[in-house]
Each structure stands twice: as structure tokens, then as C-alpha cells.
TrEMBL record:
Keyword Translocase on entry: no
Secretion signal span: 1-15
Organism: Candidula unifasciata
GO molecular function: calcium ion binding
SMART domains: EFh
SUPFAM superfamilies for the chain: EF-hand
Pfam families listed in its UniProt record: EF-hand_5, EF-hand_8
Domain EF-hand: residue ranges: 19-54, 94-129
Stored InterPro entries: EF-hand-dom_pair (IPR011992), EF_hand_dom (IPR002048)
UniProt KW keywords: Signal
Protein name: EF-hand domain-containing protein
PROSITE patterns: EF_HAND_2
Keyword DNA damage: no
Length: 129
């Protein structure tokens, strides 16, 4: 019975990750360019283009480190955490596929935008704070 319980609970626990909620919410607020409490896909794409200085449609960890702390000094030292959080496939690059996946996971009402409340709900499901 214990083995059965472990087999059921292990995948759920493996999906959880340690998160810095304050950093994620600060990042959310920074990419909400029009300050309406939602991140539209166009805002996310605009921010990604600013970070992707090599213009190869892939954000590297070095690009993220340089851009994030320059845009928001309070993100200094948090760049690697943010990069790893958004690099869903762990390819070493944040791509449009990663952004697409985040949008699908977070956008519960399918309105094409990620509201802060939706983002918080998403974090509650996947994060250990």
C-alpha cells in the first residue's frame, strides 16, 4: 500500500518546484507594459525581443542575466531563477514554445492574456514557497 501511495504522489511532488514568489510577481509587473493587470501575448513578445539581443528568437541565460537586472535592479541576482523557471523544456534557451506553453497553462479563461490572478493560481499549483 505504501508503494502504491508513493507511485501516485511522486509525480505530483516532482512537478513542484521551489519558487521565489516575490521575484515572479515583480517580473510579472515589469512585463505588464500597459499596467492593466494582465500580460498579453504581444507584451510578452515585446519583452522577449528586447531581451533577445542576438535576434535569433532564443533567449540565452547570458541575455537574460544582462537584460533583467538592467531593466529592474531588484531582479539582480534573480536572473538565473527566472530563466530556469521559464525554460520549461530545459533546453538551455527560452523560446517561443516555452512562452506558448506558459500562456496555455496560465490562461484559464482563454482570453489570450495572463491575468495576475491566473498567474498566482498557476504558481500555487506548481510552486513550493
Amino acid at each position: 500500500m505504501l508503494v502504491y501511495a508513493c507511485l501516485i504522489l511522486l509525480p505530483a511532488a516532482a512537478a513542484l518546484t521551489f519558487c521565489d514568489k516575490e521575484t515572479l510577481l515583480l517580473f510579472f509587473d515589469k512585463i505588464d507594459l500597459n499596467k492593466n493587470g494582465k500580460v498579453e501575448r504581444t507584451e510578452a513578445d515585446d519583452v522577449a525581443k528586447r531581451i533577445d539581443v542576438s535576434n535569433d528568437t532564443r533567449i540565452t541565460v547570458d541575455e537574460a542575466r544582462e537584460a533583467l537586472s538592467a531593466v529592474e535592479p531588484r531582479l539582480k541576482g534573480k536572473e538565473d531563477f527566472l530563466f530556469n523557471f521559464f525554460d520549461l523544456d530545459k533546453s538551455g534557451d527560452v523560446t517561443s514554445a516555452d512562452v506558448d506553453a506558459i500562456f496555455r497553462l496560465v490562461d484559464l479563461d482563454n482570453d489570450g492574456a495572463n491575468a495576475k490572478e491566473e498567474f498566482l493560481n498557476f504558481l500555487e499549483k506548481i510552486c513550493i514557497f
